[in-house]
Write a structure and sequence with these properties.
- By secondary structure, the protein is an alpha/beta fold.
- The protein is built from eight helices and twelve strands.
- α2 packs parallel to α3.
- The longest helix has 20 residues.
- The N and C termini lie far apart (about 35 Å).
């Protein structure tokens, strides 16, 4: 998929190299050197995807991601970081990043991840997700309008990233069935493999939004040794 990509990177060599290679792949790009400029650009125009470095001046990548999601900007984000600490990866995913790549990265892999995220985003926006025939898109006080991609809880709209929405609809559409993390990656993410932590974090986000007690979930249940199950 082709789209306009915002590169948020304070290293000139990396930013320029990414812009050149994305251009060769058919994308158009814009570059922001710090977090403040990145947010200004996202307010001025819409992007298909953001490559967001975590270690930025003025506002770091996690602060930028927090501000984007707080403003209901659900643009797909791939976080980049030279740090190897698990905290950065977990924090970025919990804040709504769609993927995470650790520097130094192989360019071919990054471009493949960009294409995968853009492809998922395009399919999500073009084709409303639907549950199996006859399955209700609701549970307790939560209602899901798949056609409008609208989720409400007790009549109040709940903002979700596109992958959070995909996972929610998948779970609600397949009640009482156990899915392994690998199966969820294949069926929801469209990938045959990925980080276990990613699935866990997205399930954790759904629990925070829809469980009365996220520490003792009643709907998004862990099946020890097997994966996850949704109980209406």
């Amino acid at each position: 998929m082709i789209g306009r990509v915002l590169i948020v990177e304070d290293d000139d060599a990396i930013a320029t190299g990414l812009a050149l290679n994305l251009k060769l792949a058919g994308h158009t790009t814009a570059i922001a050197r710090d977090g403040v400029d990145a947010l200004a650009l996202t307010e001025a125009e819409d992007f298909a995807l953001i490559l967001l470095d975590i270690n930025l001046p003025r506002k770091n990548g996690l602060e930028v991601l927090t501000a984007l999601r707080a403003a209901d900007n659900l643009v797909p984000v791939i976080a980049l970081s030279a740090r190897e600490h698990e905290f950065d990866k977990v924090a970025a995913l919990r804040l709504g990043a769609d993927d995470y790549v650790t520097k130094p990265f192989a360019l071919a892999e990054l471009l493949a991840r960009i294409d995968a995220v853009l492809r998922r985003s395009h399919l999500v926006s073009a084709t409303p997700v639907s549950a199996p025939q006859g399955a209700p898109l609701s549970f307790e006080d939560v209602a899901i309008d798949a056609a409008q991609r609208l989720v409400t809880r007790s009549g109040v709209e709940v903002k979700l990233t596109h992958l959070e929405f995909e996972l929610l609809v998948f779970f609600v559409g397949h009640p009482s069935q156990v899915f392994s993390r690998a199966q969820l990656f294949q069926l929801v993410w469209g990938q045959s493999a990925g980080s276990v932590r990613t699935v866990d974090n997205f399930v954790g986000q759904l629990r925070k939004r829809f469980e009365l007690n996220p520490e003792q979930p009643q709907h998004f249940v862990t099946v020890r040794g097997s994966g996850y199950r949704f109980d209406p």
